[in-house]
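Two entries, shown back to back:
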Amino acid sequence: MVLLQGSIVAQALKNDIKAEVECILSENKRVPHLAAILVGENGASKTYVSNKIKACKEVGFQSTIINLDENVSQHVLINEIEKLNNNSSIDGILVQLPLPQQINEQDIVKSIHPSKDVDGFHPLNTGKLLTGNPDFIPATPLGIVLMLSHYNIETSGKKVVVIGRSNIVGRPISILLSQPGKNGDATLTVCHSRTNNIEQICLEADIVIAAVGIPNFIKGNMIKNGAVVIDVGITRVPDTSKKLGYSIKGDVAFDEVFEKCSYITPVPGGVGLMTIAALMKNTLHAYYLHEGN
């Protein structure tokens, strides 16, 4: 069994991005700039944004955080996004999800200019992904593909089961892996809450991608010998034995699965780190789009 270490792959990707930023600086040009909007005091969201800003610093990007109150109106939030849309020094905009219930997330996603949508959620960018000509690929699916590529894990002709059909992970990764070309040409099955016989479907898979958000959902009896297991889940589970009062659990029952599979991602230390590195890659791409390179 090989542990798919997101720390190693993410660091290699960030090193490449940092080298490109150094070249940009050597030409006396401005560096890429990522702006993040954080609404409210959700602990997990604050941690995610903090990690993204830390990554910006590591690769040499400029970053800005805009903190808004939990009770902010949708109108005020969209006005903040419009300011960033109209700011030529900002290359990428992300609004940390989830948002409070008074705000329609789809309206917020659509308000971000497609050329600054480094999360890859705007309908225009989704359409480009679907037709095989993407500008921005959602960061978690992109991170998964980059990890598979780094470890030379073959996808062509393989049976891939994706558990979860969200617009953030499940749907885009199923599109990416089924498209023709490198890191594609797989046969996809997408499972969800209405799928019957999930256990049997998973047992037939060469690659299982778990993105359902239920801790330890994938058990050892659902994985065939030699399968590749990608665990996207990151859930805070109360744990009084931990200093912070919680543990981080993935969607996969790691101790049951790791002896059967050929490759597996840990949680934490796997896909989450790749998501942040892929976001940096998208921000650099947005910079080049705006600079006309």
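entry 2 starts here
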Amino acid sequence: MPAAPHDASPGLLDQRQVTLAVAFSALGWSFDLFDLFVLLYVAPALAHVFFASGRPMLSLAGVYAAFTATLLMRPAGGWVFGRYSDRRGRRRAMRVAALGVGVATALMGALPTVQSVGLLAPVLFVSLRLVQGVFMGGMVASTHTLGTESIAARRRGLASGIISGGGSGVGKLVASLVFLLVSALFPGRLYLEWGWRVMFFSGLLSSMLGLLVFSRVQESPLWEALQRSAAPAPAAPRPGLGGFAPTMLLCVVLTGAGGGLSYLTSGYLPTFLKLVNHVPPRSLGLMLSVSALGVIGASVLAGHLSDVLGRRPAMLLYGAASLLLLPLLYLGLEHAVSPLWVGGCAVLLSALGTFAYAPLMIVLNERFPTAIRASGTAVSWNIGFALGGSMPVLVSLLAHDPGGLVGALGLCIAVLAGAYLLAAWCVPARRNRMA
């Protein structure tokens, strides 16, 4: 693995600026994931309006395939915006990507249905998902570097938990509240006609709020220090990603496994609760909102523990807990007989599912020098999540019917947790290019 120089210390910001950098990075990531959770929450409705067929699980697999299409384009967005972020700064990349995500999401709400235009409807829907994927991949290049580059080294794991897991929880919480409101305003048949459209339209509002917020964030001090040090010799070659192939492979496996576990808990939970537990929309919105709060708390704790225990020991602990407990919780959820039992299992699944995911950002950041950190992190993260994001499709196909979901989920969780444990064991204990 090629050697890299030590990075500058992020001591150029005061405490308020550091707090804003971490908070705004978390908000940026939450706006990104809000748009993803919108699709997950309306998946059963989209199965009817875009992928109608005689087999409900096949139609649902079509929706998740469209979801995966977005993830497949994210590596391209990570590469384009990562290079832009490494050259022009984290702030600029964040603004452009946030606007693109919001516009693409809102346009999905204006599309005709398969009942109106036939096969053209799913084609248009998937096309917009592909475009959205490029901008979503670009969000990673800035949100996943700016905050961690702005905080002291001893708290970077905590920042990772706040930004990645906390941002995810905030995105899920806002999407849950929007889903709860829209379900109340458009009950029953109205939801299939207009409710799912309003859910997508709300994506543009989140994007506009993001642009307003990002105008106040300070640029990364590590990136600015690199620009100053490179000013006298602009022709000096920058390190390239080609020399970091083993590092990127490790990062891809980690994010694929950790992200897949998140998608099979927080991501798949709305569908499971609808199809298996038959939770009505209002109760579902409340359960998912409480689950989002669990995600926020668990991710912050998991990130902090990675500072205290060390990255590798913490991830080994998280992987083992996922392997043992997540299948049992889904089994318990399947046999839940009361709303309190259902809600408790849902909160525990969401919280535990984010433990393996929370420290990933800082683990990736620490593998790359500042000159290529945005590119390396964004490309690795987005390739990994493209792989992990395919898990809901695989589960839907393996299950055949709702009765087979627990077995399919248990199998996929076991494979992902095993891959996560293997990759976590290979993470270098001391090599840190942000030191």
